[in-house]
Design brief:
- This protein is of the alpha/beta class.
- It folds into two domains: 201 residues, NAD(P)-binding Rossmann-like Domain (Rossmann fold, 3-Layer(aba) Sandwich); 93 residues, UDP-galactose 4-epimerase, domain 1.
- The protein contains eleven helices and 14 strands.
- The strands form four sheets. The protein has a seven-stranded parallel β-sheet with strand order 3-2-1-4-5-6-11, with helices on both faces.
- The longest helix is centred in the first third of the chain and has 20 residues.
- Bound molecules: nicotinamide-adenine-dinucleotide.
Length: 318
């Protein structure tokens, strides 16, 4: 099989690329390195079955060319930061909606029949049902990121209906693990390196969230690509549980042998659009034969190990 992976140099995308190559597939990566890291593709570059197109998916012509001869597109390129959405109100529209439309057009013009897409549990906003199943009514959107992902899901579904594309849409909780470059473990670890005696925490620490290790995430993507037979298959991805932010702070501090004083900024949310309780019902994905192998605690501890061994990533992302 020949795959196009957008966001190939990113945290999750590069782990997907490595798995596809290990499984014997041919992979064309596409990345602008806006947040991706060349080093994440070191293993891939050593494979004759890998090629990277360095460019911006905003350029439709490049995307159309990239889709030539492709069987499946794994579209993971995006602005993946929820938190700073209101600082640049157009970014989610451009990078998450227009770029997704470009990818769909590239597929349509080349007869590519399958797309896997990284959406987010953020589309559930403040969910009316917990644990939240895929068919939960979608509430009013609370972040530009969530709104852009939902719009992208809409375009993907319409292309599936209109042009016979098979779509697999994953709504992830936050992902942790090797090559992690953004999120609360990253922020906390970076802070504790600078000042081991105190930690500034956004919100009041009571936020409850699910997390998933990146290898469990990649397993699920591979299984769904193989087994999903719906025209548009939507799959929640997370562990069967959640932790409170203070649990995670405890694991990180314990792992580093620290006991920082905690300074809370206060309020139930860490930032505008932060959903204080995210717990996804992943029964549908599990029914395809998938089970996450790592607990949230193990995923947090492995992420800290990764950051300790790869401090260079801390300098690359603000
Ligand atoms: N990390 C998480 O916890 C999480 C949770 C839910 C959903 N997601 C989604 O999963 C996907 C991957 O996230 P990630 O954490 O690996 O993020 P990431 O920032 O590490 O990866 C995104 C990649 O896309 C590339 N990219 C972005 N815009 C581009 C453009 N216009 N042209 C070419 N390349 C471009 C970046 O350079 C980067 O390599 C994203 O779609 C994100 O929204 C991530």
């Amino acid at each position: 099989m020949r795959f196009l992976v957008t966001g190939a140099a990113g945290f999750i995308g590069s782990n997907v690329v490595d798995r596809l190559l290990a499984d014997g597939h041919e992979v064309v990566g596409f990345d602008s390195y806006i947040t991706g890291q060349r080093e994440f593709l070191t293993g891939a570059f050593a494979s004759p079955k890998f090629r990277l197109i360095e460019g911006d998916l905003f350029d439709l012509t490049s995307v159309i060319e990239a889709c030539v001869g492709i069987d499946t597109v794994i579209h993971f390129a995006a602005n993946a930061d929820v938190r700073f959405g209101t600082n640049h109100p157009r970014r989610d529209l451009d990078q998450n909606v227009i770029v997704t439309w470009n990818v769909l057009e590239g597929m349509r013009r080349n007869g590519v029949k399958t797309i896997a897409f990284s959406s987010t549990g953020s589309v559930y906003g403040v969910a009316p049902r917990i644990p939240t199943p895929e068919d939960c009514p979608l509430p009013i959107q609370t972040s530009l990121y969530g709104a852009s992902k939902l719009a992208a899901e809409g375009f993907i579904s319409a292309y599936a209906e209109g042009f016979g594309v098979r779509a697999i849409i994953f709504r992830f909780v936050s992902i942790l693990g090797e090559r992690y470059t953004h999120g609360h473990v990253f922020d906390f670890y970076k802070q504790l390196l600078e000042h081991p005696d105190y930690l500034r925490v956004l919100g009041d620490g009571s936020q409850r969230k699910g997390y998933l290790h990146v290898q469990d995430c990649v397993d699920a993507i591979m299984i769904a690509l193989d087994k999903s037979d719906e025209k548009v298959g939507i799959f929640n991805l997370g562990v069967p549980g959640y932790c409170q932010l203070t649990d995670s702070i405890g694991w990180i501090s314990n792992h580093l042998g620290l006991n920082p004083r905690l300074e809370y900024t206060g309020g139930k949310q860490g930032w505008i659009g932060d959903n204080p309780f995210i717990f996804l019902d992943c029964w549908k994905m599990c029914s395809l034969g998938w089970q996450p192998k790592l607990s949230i605690e193990a995923a947090v501890r492995r992420t800290v190990d990764y950051l300790q061994a790869n401090k260079w990533v801390l300098e690359r992302r603000p």
